[in-house]
Each structure stands twice: as C-alpha cells, then as structure tokens.
Design goal:
The protein is mainly beta. Helix content is about 10%, strand content about 45%. The chain contains 4 helices and 31 strands. The strands form 9 sheets. A 4-stranded antiparallel beta sheet has the order 5-4-3-29. The longest helix has 15 residues.
C-alpha cells in the first residue's frame, strides 16, 4: 500500500525516541485535531482553521491556525475518507441555487489549498457526507436530495441522485411539506439517511423525522431502498456505535424559556432496524441536543434549551454507560450550563472531551466524571480570527485510516461533525433577534421591530 509523504513524515516524527539517563520517551508530532469555521459579527465573511497538538497531549499546549480566508458568511466543513486518507469538504452557502464550488482538502497538509473544487447541483446547503469505496454520498438541507459523487473522477456528481421522499413511494409526507436532508452514515454495505419534515412549510411546526435505510451497489454507487423508520421531531444527529444509531431530536421548534415535551433520543438497532425511544426523567431540563459514545462504559448526553430571551443556553451534560442510556435516572451530571451562544455539541475520545459551547470550544484534558472536572483550554472566535465573531461549524478531524486513531474513528462511524447543528444555531440567533428587536445590518447590531 502506498502511503502519502505527509503521513510518512508524521509516522517518523511520532516514532522518535529521546533517551535521557537510561530512560526513553516518545516524542509525538503535533497534528491537526479539530477543524472549525468562524464568521464575523455581521455574518458577512468567514474563515476556516484547525486546532492542533499532540493527539494524546495536554490541551494546554494546543494552538490554532487559520487555513482558509476570504470565505462568505456561511462556511462549513465536513470530514470523510477517500480510501485510507482523511479528507475535508469545505462548502460556502449563500442562500441561492448557485453556491460557490466545494473545496476538497487534505486536513493534514501545511496549507488547505483545494485538491479539486467540484460543484454538486443536487446539493444545496450541504449538511452531511459519507463514503463507501469510491462513492461519496452528500445531502443538503435545502433540496433534501442524496447526490452520488465519484471520488475517482475528480469528485464529479454522477447520474444517480435521489429526492426525498418522492424517490421512494412507500414514504409519504403531507402535501406542501418542507423537507430537509440532515445526516448520512455508512455502516457495512448500507447507507442511512436522516430527513426532517415541516408539514406546513416554514420552520415553526415539525412532524416526526425519518431515517431511511439503503443498500449500496459498490460497483455503480446506486442506492436501493430497504426500509424507513420514524424518529423524533427536528432530529439532527445520526451517531453510530456498535451496530446502533443514536438520534437526538429537539422535539419541535426551539423554544425560549422551556424545552419541548416531544424531545427524545431514539436508539436504532441496525440488526433488526427497530428503535428504542428514551425520554427525560422528572427534574431534567432541556431538549436532547447531542450524544457521544467513547466506549461501552462511557457515554455522554447533552440536554439544554434557551432562556426566555434566547441569550443563554440552560442545561446539563450527563455521563452514563451505553447499557444505561435507556435509564436517564441513573445518569450523572458532569457539567451544568448557563452560557451564551448558538452552536452546541459534544465529543469524547479516549483521552479528552471536546465541548462546542455556544460561542467557544472547551477542551477537557480527560473524560469528565463530575462537575468538578473542567476544561483546561478554551478557544473563542476572537482567538480564532474574528473579534466578536461567531462559531459557524466545527468537526473532529479523523486521522488517516493507516493510523490506530483513524481506524478507531472509522469503526465507530466517520469523525464527528457539528455542522448539522448550524441550522439550529441560525434559527436560535434569528429568534433571539426577533424577540429582542435586534438585527444585524452591515455588521452593526441595531434595534428594529419591523
């Protein structure tokens, strides 16, 4: 197997040994661990960058660097694998049918110059990608289509594309409904796709979301419908662990000052394609917003909702085992939240915990077990490139599959993305501006009740 030069360099650096007075220590090489996009306070321009450090190092040593500048006001990045190599797609959404071309990037290159810049007409407002062999599957929020892309042909869009729900007659939605592509996950030879539905159009009313199962033709990339399941309203996660999918659903439109009564966590058993639904216990606040599973003994669930003015998120992060995910009364609170910002998400790996906390990125040096455990490194939009700016998307950067860390991420599903949370962030921000009468005009916040 041929390894690219950049990866060989990282292997050699990681293997260097320092001998001091008869003892030795492995000197690991810093690498890009976490990707992000930030925008200015007026959502008029953006940039992309990475947080780097030793993969098992202390977060206090982590640094950030800007990789791409001159982006528009809604950029986001997504991680995937092309064969054994980790890749990014950077998209810029401009709320029109003709967006700038996507950029395919090597996340571990010194500079993030695009390897190729394809345009995919069947994807508007890209929200998720997943791959199998040379086939990349992409879905966008606006069109609710699944596009099939051939990575071996310059990432060209193929003739295969599928429109939710009309491509599959067994799925029906109300006439006039607005439908949205939210998530994609490949497990073995199957693709799973998550779609949300607004039965009356707009964004104020939601029906149950739908997860669709397909088999993949690995020769042509074509998809064959197998089955579908209804999950919670306004769902946006599709996390995979140990042959199960975990789907967090807000339960409807985000509310000011209260959670949705229909919020829930659905656990889909892929062996039977059946679901188990988890709801909150008495005393828990917030909507189910995110989940991350490290191993059988360590899982985290984040519940929260905005306060009455949409200024702060109120909620908690809980720790439990995978076996006890269906028993919320046994969960342990490890973080209480009362913080501003709009982009929220959690991710734990074997050595640390990442918390996309509204408008900052908190990094814990280990896996929190109580509220006494705190982050030792924080990055704000000001530190990442825009004074008073906003986080717009974030993602864990998976190493190449030839590394042990990359293989572990692939076995649990492709690296965690928080980009699907961006729509929730945008809707909450707009709701806050409407509620307070504040609007952003030419980068300035003004009072307006129009």
């Amino acid at each position: 197997m041929k390894l690219k030069a950049g990866f060989l360099k990282r292997i050699l650096l990681t293997a260097m040994t320092l001998s001091i007075i008869g003892s030795s220590a492995v000197q690991a090489a810093p690498e890009n661990l976490f990707g992000y996009t930030v925008v200015d306070s007026g959502y008029s321009q953006g940039l992309a960058g990475a947080i780097s450090g030793e993969r098992t190092g202390n977060p206090t040593t982590f640094t950030s660097s800007t990789k791409v500048t001159g982006l528009n006001g809604d950029p986001a990045i997504f991680n995937f694998f092309q064969g054994n190599e980790s890749r990014l797609v950077l998209r810029e959404y401009n709320y029109t049918p003709t967006a700038p071309p996507n950029r395919i990037i090597d996340p571990f290159a010194a500079s993030w110059n695009p390897l190729v810049s394809p345009s995919w007409s069947n994807v508007a407002n890209l929200h998720a990608v997943a791959t199998k062999n040379q086939w990349l599957y992409a879905t966008g929020y606006d069109l609710a289509k699944i596009a099939v892309v051939n990575m071996n042909s310059g990432y060209a869009q193929t003739a295969h594309n599928y429109q939710f729900p009309t491509s599959w007659p067994s799925i029906s939605v109300p006439a006039g409904a607005a439908v949205h592509g939210e998530g994609l996950t490949v497990v073995d030879n199957n693709l799973y796709a998550l779609f949300t539905i607004n039965p009356d159009g707009g964004y104020s009313v939601y029906s149950n979301s739908i997860v669709v199962k397909f088999t993949i033709n690995t020769i042509t990339g074509a998809l064959t419908y197998v089955n579908h399941l209804e999950v919670g309203k306004n769902a946006f996660t599709l996390d995979h662990y140990n042959n199960k999918l975990y789907v967090c659903a807000v339960g409807g439109m985000q509310n000011a000052g209260s959670a949705n009564p229909d919020t829930r966590l659905d656990i889909i058993d892929l062996a039977t394609f059946t679901k188990t639904t988890v709801t909150k216990t008495s005393g828990m606040i917030g909507d189910f917003r995110d989940i991350t599973i490290v191993d059988a003994n360590t899982a985290y669930v984040f519940l929260g909702n905005y306060n009455a003015s949409f200024a702060n998120m109120l909620g908690n992060v809980y720790r439990t085992t995978v076996a006890n995910l269906t028993s919320p009364s046994t969960w342990t609170n490890v973080s209480t939240i009362n913080s501003p910002g709009y982009l929220w998400g959690i991710y734990g790996d074997s050595t640390r915990f990442w918390f996309v906390k509204g408008n900052q990125i908190d990094i814990y040096p280990g896996l929190p077990a109580s509220t006494g455990d705190t982050a030792t490194r924080t990055f704000t939009p000001t530190q990442l490139g825009y004074s008073g700016g906003n986080l717009n998307s974030a993602i864990i950067l998976a190493p190449d599959l030839t590394s042990r860390a990359g293989a572990a991420l692939q076995s649990a599903g492709v690296a965690k993305s928080f980009a699907a949370h961006s729509v929730l962030a945008q809707q909450a921000r707009k709701a806050a501006e409407k509620k307070t009468g504040l609007k952003i005009v030419n980068g300035q916040r003004i009072l307006s009740f129009d």
